[in-house]
Design a protein that fits this description.
The chain has about 180 residues and is an all-alpha fold. It is about 75% helix and about 0% strand. The chain is built from six helices and no strands. The radius of gyration is 29 Å and the shape is elongated.
Length: about 180
């Protein structure tokens, strides 16, 4: 028998899991396509500046600048012996790069917040459904006059949980 819950061990993934993965990939693509041009530019700059190519490029450029202005390369006149221009360029670059990184981080944080909200909603739904299953199981056990070994645990699982109270308790313990 093969359905959304079971799977052939040769396949590796159930059809449900495969469908969920494809849905998430499609959603990420849509979100990337819906990003503004400015966000795409900021993300591209952040991706490039976070690469080793960027490091090597700066190492070569700044290394040449420093070596040339220390008069270590014959035939090349120094143009910034006090390195003031180099410091100014590096400072301005740092201002812009940190801004691009913050823009990208803000977008990533917003996406992470959406995923966290989704995770919370799914967890609350799963908890609610499991509570219903525990109640039903308790009723079946009572009807069959069966005393479960973990009756106390089953009764506890059948109780509704108030998410707001859980959050309040977490906040109390942090204080």
């Amino acid at each position: 028998m093969h359905n959304d819950i079971t799977h052939d061990s040769g396949e590796g993934l159930s059809p449900t899991l495969e469908r969920n993965i494809q849905a998430l990939v499609a959603r990420r693509r849509r979100e990337q396509q819906a990003a503004s041009g400015q966000d795409k530019v900021a993300d591209a700059i952040t991706a490039f500046t976070g690469s080793m190519i960027f490091v090597y490029l700066h190492l070569a450029l700044f290394g040449f600048w420093i070596i040339a202005n220390l008069h270590w390369i014959p035939g090349i006149p120094a143009w910034d012996e006090s390195f003031v221009m180099l410091a100014m360029i590096a400072s301005v670059e740092a201002i812009f790069l940190s801004t691009f990184v913050l823009i990208s981080q803000n977008r990533m944080t917003a996406a992470a917040d959406k995923r966290a909200d989704l995770d919370l909603q799914i967890s609350l739904l799963a908890e609610h459904e499991l509570t219903k299953v525990a109640r039903l199981l308790t009723q079946v056990a009572e009807r069959l006059d069966v005393k479960p070994d973990a009756e106390r645990d089953l009764q506890e699982a059948a109780r509704d949980i108030a998410p707001e109270r859980v959050l309040d308790k977490i906040e109390e313990t942090r204080s």
